[in-house]
């Protein structure tokens, strides 16, 4: 049976902060308590072979860290309905206290309910009231909407803003990090592999990717109905700092924003018209600029080998302070050339850090 909600006198909560979660050991028995702001409520999903019902909500703390919180089965109906109803009728953002929740690293670090989880909306604790007041003052910033050019057919991921003061890690150190989770880097962004598809087709219902470029309706075995395919922006981008180069995936509205194109436009150009995507404007816009990037390191297994991949959750151009007169007279530091940095593969077999092999970066295709 599910636990009853506590009616005890409010006291100071013993909660886990969001910035600690990536450093915790993920196991089947670990449980934490969190206090967070609710930004968005997602639709119902049916996942796995047993088609378990769930709904995802996007949570945020007062450092603008975000996590997806999966509400399984009854939690997705009862608690999610209460949250969605309050969000629709109240002007301010909500705060929830979720106790005894689990941490999952399936397809990236996230949070999820357990059988003994309890979820309270706007609880009467001093810490909750403080967070509520902060959410009121920063509501516009927290609910920053994506570009009008964003395709509404894309599977929308949370727009995560890199919090100020987060600990940065170099690209060379990411592969040796002993855990999966979130990382923050400062790096330049480039697209060395120019002849990518830049988009994939996925089922409009379950969002499962299909290995085809034909958008005709089909019988989806997972949705168990006739459905259509919709394009979703997805491609590989190279991240460069003064220690190494690595490749990460970027998708949905983040990829559309970087390319200044919608997924529909990308599909029409690359698949319907069978033309190469012009990236000259992307190269010009990103040239000699440094970005604050939030990455998620995930793992997957194949043939008894564990592999790691990187995906971009957010990025923003680093704001440089204006140079003083003295600074302008100083000699400028020469940008590091691609041939001068160590190159790391994005996907590598798990093992000791020194086991990573080195390889030369691909030679950019010469344009005619």
From TrEMBL:
SUPFAM superfamilies: Nucleic acid-binding proteins
Every Replication factor A C-terminal domain range: 196-310
One Pfam family cited in the UniProt record for this chain: Rep_fac-A_C
InterPro entries to which the protein is assigned, alphabetical: NA-bd_OB-fold (IPR012340), Rep_factor-A_C (IPR013955)
Residue span of region Disordered: 345-368
PANTHER family given in the database record: RIBULOSE BISPHOSPHATE CARBOXYLASE LARGE CHAIN, CATALYTIC DOMAIN-CONTAINING PROTEIN
Record protein name field: Replication factor A C-terminal domain-containing protein
């Amino acid at each position: 049976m599910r636990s009853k909600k506590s009616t005890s006198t409010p006291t100071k909560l013993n909660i886990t902060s969001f910035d600690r979660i990536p450093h915790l050991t993920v196991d089947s028995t670990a449980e934490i308590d969190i206090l967070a702001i609710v930004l968005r409520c997602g639709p119902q999903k049916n996942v796995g072979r047993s088609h378990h019902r769930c709904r995802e909500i996007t949570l945020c703390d007062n450092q603008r860290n975000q996590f997806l919180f999966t509400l399984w089965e009854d939690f997705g109906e009862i608690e999610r309905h209460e949250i969605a109803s309050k969000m629709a009728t109240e002007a301010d953002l909500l705060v929830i206290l979720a106790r005894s929740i689990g941490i999952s690293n399936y397809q990236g670090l996230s949070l999820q309910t357990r059988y003994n989880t309890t979820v309270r909306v706007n609880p009467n604790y001093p810490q909750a009231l403080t967070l509520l007041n902060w959410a009121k003052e920063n509501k516009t910033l927290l609910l920053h909407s994506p570009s009008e050019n964003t395709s509404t057919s894309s599977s929308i991921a949370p727009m995560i803003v890199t919090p100020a003061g987060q600990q940065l890690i170099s690209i060379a150190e990411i592969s040796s990090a002993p855990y999966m989770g979130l990382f923050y880097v400062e790096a330049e962004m480039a697209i060395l592999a120019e002849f990518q598809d830049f988009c994939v087709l996925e089922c409009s219902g379950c969002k499962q990717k299909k290995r085809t470029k034909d958008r005709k309706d089909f019988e989806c075995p997972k949705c168990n109905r006739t459905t259509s395919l919709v394009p979703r922006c997805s491609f590989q981008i190279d991240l460069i700092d003064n220690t190494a180069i690595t490749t990460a995936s970027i998708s949905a509205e983040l990829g559309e924003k970087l390319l200044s194109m919608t997924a529909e436009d990308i599909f029409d150009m690359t698949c319907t018209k069978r033309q190469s995507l012009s990236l000259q404007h992307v190269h010009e816009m990103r040239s000699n600029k440094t970005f604050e990037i939030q990455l998620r390191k995930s793992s997957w297994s194949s043939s008894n080998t564990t592999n790691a991949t990187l995906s971009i959750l957010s990025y923003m151009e680093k704001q440089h302070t204006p140079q003083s007169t003295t600074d302008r007279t100083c000699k400028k530091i020469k940008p590091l050339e691609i041939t001068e940095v160590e190159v790391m593969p994005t996907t590598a077999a798990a093992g000791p850090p020194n086991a990573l092999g080195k390889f030369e970066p691909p030679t950019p295709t010469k344009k005619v």
